[in-house]
Structures are given as C-alpha cells and as structure tokens.
Amino acid sequence: MKTVTLSNGVEMPILGLGVYRIEDLAVCEKTVLNAISAGYRHIDTAALYHNEEAVGNAIRKSGAPRKEIFVTTKLWLTDNGYESAKKAFEESLNKLQLDYLDLYLIHAPFNDVYGAWRAIEELYKARKIRAIGVSNFSPDRVIDLGLYNEVAPMVNQIEIHPFLQQSKNTDYLLGNNVQPQAYSPFCAGRHDFFENETLREIGAKYGKSIAQVTLRWLIQRGIVAIFKSANKERLVENINIFDFELNAEDMMKIAELDENRGVYFSYDDPEVVKQFKSFGK
Ligand SMILES: NC(=O)c1ccc[n+]([C@@H]2O[C@H](COP(=O)([O-])OP(=O)(O)OC[C@H]3O[C@@H](n4cnc5c(N)ncnc54)[C@H](OP(=O)(O)O)[C@@H]3O)[C@@H](O)[C@H]2O)c1
C-alpha cells in the first residue's frame, strides 16, 4: 500500500477503511477481516462509532503483524478536556485491545480542545500514540493549536468529495505540513453520487468505476482517503486504484463538479455548535 509521510516521519497508508455506521459488531468484525485480507492496512474508527471492540477483534484474528496495520480512533467531544481525554484514550485502547495507537484525533473542534490536546501530547510523548491530529477543524483552528502547543497536529480529517472539494483548505494544510484526510469520499452515497455521469464517463475511459475514479482523484491530490463499505466485492474494487493515473484534463473535469455542498455538518456554523451540545455519546 502506498503511504504518505506525516510531519513526524510516520508513514500513513494513503487509503483506508472507515467503519462509521457499521453498528452490528459481527458485521464490523467481518468487514475489517475482509478488508485486511483484501490488502487494506489502515482502519479508521472512533469512540462515537461504538465498534472499537469489533475492530480490535478483527485485527487480532487477522494474524497480520501489529506494526503493519495503521489504526486510528477519535476522542468524542464530551471527553474534550485533560483528565477526560486521558481516561477516554485508555478506554479506546482497551476496547481495541492494543498497546499503542497509530493515530488519535480530536473528533470535533468544540469544548475544551486545549485540555484534550495537552493530554494527547503527553500520550504521544509517552509513545502510546505514533501520530496525533484533529478532525473537522478549520485551517485557522489547526494552525492555532499547533502554534500554542509543543506538538502541532499532523493530520486534519475532513469531509472531501467531488461535490465538496475544499481545495483551498487542503492546499493550505499540505503547505503547512498537516496531512489532509478525506472522509465520506463518496458523499456517503448521497446526492446520486453513484449516478454521476461525468465520473462514469471518466471511469469508462480507464475501465474503472465511479468509486475507483474518486479515490484515485483524491490520492493524486496527495490526500489520504477513507471510505466505508461493508461489501466484500467493493472492498476489492476500491483498493484497485494503483494501476492507473487520471490525466490533467480528467482531473480538471472532476474539479468542475465542486458545488461546495457537504453531507454532514458545517462545523463553523454556531447553530451546529449548539446542536452538538446535546448530541452526546
Ligand atoms: N471525522 C468525522 O467526523 C467523520 C464523519 C463521517 C465519516 N467519517 C469516516 O469516513 C468513513 C467513510 O465515510 P462515510 O461512511 O460517511 O461515506 P462514504 O465512504 O463516502 O460512502 C459510503 C457508502 O458508499 C457505498 N460504497 C462504498 N464503495 C462502493 C462502491 N465501490 N460502489 C458503490 N457503492 C459503494 C457504501 O455502501 P456499502 O457499504 O453497501 O458498500 C456506503 O453506502 C466513515 O466510515 C468514517 O470512518 C468520519
């Protein structure tokens, strides 16, 4: 699997499986096992997804060497704070049945982010976490966190797909040594994503599907991508993106699909901040 090098030298696989909304733990375990046998070496979960234990079971049962699998989990915002972050991290690590984590992210930019970051920095320095970062942060918040702490975030995981391309944001992150990571690369399957004619036509030229074209478009921009699929055949399909390259004209056609339209939350909307206050674990 191709990797990107994070600002601290850690190698991160450029493509991974996310397990959001795979709530059935048996299905989650099976999906992660299928992904590992299909060649994936990067799994993304979160305390919020309530399936860390299933991810841990699959990693253990896969027999793959621990150091080959890049495991990410995330701190939910109700635990953003110094003491609560330390406790939540231990809980996640126990559920994952691991003795260290590859990447730990602050899931959302609300509540006591600074307290949480200080706890995460200590865990990083104690080598319990190989790389640390944030999710759903605007670029100014990422830079602020880095400037006023000892360790700067290495990753920002944000929603990116052809209808919400965030080019200015990702260029800024890349230019400032913060790795952008795309979640929901298929627009979570909404807005008729898998019916898009432009993506279909481009795919036909290369003998590739809409999903493959989209993942390829992301990695060609230097963005790490995590998608969700609980389907064994699609897992095989989605990793088959390293044998072709989109030309400049096709990259431009995809750029023209941008509508600045996301499927999840606008984290800089004050009404969203209010909504999250009542959206706990
Ligand atoms: N940090 C955050 O706040 C945040 C927020 C949202 C998501 N995420 C992460 O990003 C991951 C992916 O995001 P997502 O689940 O929202 O959406 P997504 O990956 O954009 O889309 C998932 C949908 O695409 C379908 N799909 C996958 N491969 C396909 C293919 N080759 N052909 C046709 N359909 C295909 C899946 O169906 P099947 O399962 O049936 O294949 C599923 O319905 C999550 O699992 C999570 O790890 C993070």
Describe the structure in brief.
This protein is an alpha/beta fold.
What are the key terms here?
single chain, alpha/beta, 281 residues, TIM Barrel, binds NADP nicotinamide-adenine-dinucleotide phosphate
Q: Mind explaining what this structure looks like?
A:
The protein has 281 residues and is an alpha/beta fold. The chain has one domain: NADP-dependent oxidoreductase domain (TIM Barrel, Alpha-Beta Barrel). It is 41% helix and 16% strand. The protein has helices spanning 25-38, 52-62, 82-96, 113-125, 139-147, 167-175, 197-206, 210-220, 232-239, 248-255, 270-277; strands spanning 3-5, 11-13, 15-18, 42-44, 70-75, 101-106, 129-135, 155-159, 179-183, 224-227. The strands form 2 sheets. The chain has an 8-stranded parallel beta barrel, surrounded by 4 helices. Strands 1-2 form a two-stranded antiparallel sheet. Strand 5, helix 3 (82-96) and strand 6 form a beta-alpha-beta unit. Helix 1 packs across helix 2 (52-62), helix 1 (25-38) runs parallel beside helix 9 and helix 7 (197-206) packs across helix 8. The protein is globular. 47% of the residues are buried. Bound molecules: NADP nicotinamide-adenine-dinucleotide phosphate. Residues 18-20, 44, 107, 135-136, 157, 183-189, 194, 209, 211, 226-231, 234, 237-238, 264 line the site of NADP nicotinamide-adenine-dinucleotide phosphate.
Number of strands: 10
* CATH topology grouping: TIM Barrel
**Can you tell me the number of structural domains?**
1
By CATH, the architecture is named Alpha-Beta Barrel
Lay out the secondary structure.
Blueprint: E1 3-5, E2 11-13, E3 15-18, H1 25-38, E4 42-44, H2 52-62, E5 70-75, H3 82-96, E6 101-106, H4 113-125, E7 129-135, H5 139-147, E8 155-159, H6 167-175, E9 179-183, H7 197-206, H8 210-220, E10 224-227, H9 232-239, H10 248-255, H11 270-277
Parallel strand pairs: 3-4, 3-10, 4-5, 5-6, 6-7, 7-8, 8-9, 9-10
Antiparallel strand pairs: 1-2
Bound molecules: NADP nicotinamide-adenine-dinucleotide phosphate (NAP).
NADP nicotinamide-adenine-dinucleotide phosphate (NAP) binds at residues 18-20, 44, 107, 135-136, 157, 183-189, 194, 209, 211, 226-231, 234, 237-238, 264.
